[in-house]
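ok so I'm stuck.
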Amino acid sequence: MRIHLDRIRRERRPFSWEETVEVAPEVLGREELVALSPVTWRGRISWTDPGFYLKAALDAEQTLACDRCLEPFTAPVAEEVELLVLVDEPRPLEGERELKDDELGVLHLDGEVLDTEPLLVEALQLAIPMKPVCRSDCRGLCPVCGADLNGGPCDCRTVTVDPRWAALEKLKPGS
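replied:
not stuck anymore, here's the structure
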């Protein structure tokens, strides 16, 4: 959604929106994301000197591949976005630099039009866990045969000896 900020400033009335957006999982660039339901994206933006105050929220359901057993599972997503939007003169690119504490939560725009899609995509990306797990006691896959250990133990010998200790194995009685 593209919001014309000059109109909000001129009319001195907040602008509210609510929409349902389809976001393809490929857009988020995360392999563990299998599917994403339609996203309910709503918010409000109002004029506050020196800029605009934006408060938005999104709700969706994401299907992720478990990092341990690789089985898909569904998890709810409920995120909020709060920003101070400042309209600035275009600045030359400075390259990479570290953000200061007072710059966090501030969005600088070069024009009077705010596109909310990048904000939505960023909030969805941040909602994906780094290591998604279907449940806290997930036992994962057998490292030898690949069987799902959540269904029960496999018949593999899972005790492996570190090759650095193999010489000591000969000193054991009965070896």
